[in-house]
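Narrative of activities, Objective 1.

The group set out to show that a structural description can be obtained from nothing but a protein's sequence at a throughput compatible with the screening campaign. Below is one input-output pair from the validation batch, recorded exactly as produced.
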Amino acid sequence: MADAKRTGQGTALAWFMSNDVIIAGYQGPRSILTRGLTAFAEASLPSATLVPDVTADGLPAQALFDGIEMGTYAAGYMASGYLTARVPELAVLDLPFSVTDRRQAFAKLDGDLGRALSAAVARETNLVVLAFWDNGFRHITNASHPIRSPAECKGLRIRTLNNQLYQDTLTALGFEPVVTDVKELIQACETGAVHAQENPLTNMLTFGLDRWHKHVSLTGHIFGIVLLTANKDWFCALSEDDQETLLKGAADATVCQRFWAEEEDSVGLQTLKARGVEVLEQADLDTQAFRAAAERIRSTSVAKLPKEIVDLYLA
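Output recorded for this entry:
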């Protein structure tokens, strides 16, 4: 998916093959993102240093995102929503209640839509998109009561990421959004600083949030996309052969990562139920009320996006 031009700034082969190359993530060993990053490293950068979770070293996840762009890390991943403020076209991926079929979404991201979004990222940042990864459908969990409709969201503080469309959507559903870095997610749930949070099921298990949140509502309000990225200066300095090696490794890892993500939805659901978590599936929810509550946010956001981008994803 890379859409950056090679700059001809000399060879980067030594950098490409040396231990000075660091690729990093921000989740623990069971994460589908960590597994994907490991597969990418083994296929593309076997001599690189892999840092699976920068938060384990006391850093916030934001330090990873900044570090990739500055060149501290050669490559890593980030939820697309973290970049939307700088790359407005990415907001198409954040539109609430817009995706129900992940495979259909990826068919579009692997085509013209992905190329358009990759070009926008390369234009506005010092990043190159290597692939689009599956971060799962985002659902709502909380510590106090079952949530079947927006009426039961009112007054609950909900943790979310630093993305205005996410926050506006949750506000429209009745929540009081609270932004924290991933590093503070567990503490916020454990201490009750937030009553609820929204994430794919895999993250609920990765971070052990079922220890405090015994209620899950499968709202699927946003389908999360993760960007596998590289530092643009570094990528563009690579030889064409090295770039191809990197992109092929990313493509191979992406096949595995998407499979694991889809598998995790099924496994995660059964695991949570086995642990005594009350799971409300879509048939148990007033889905129409959730969609209606978020419709103004969705339609307003669509109107701000380039029509061609919207059509490529949602048509």
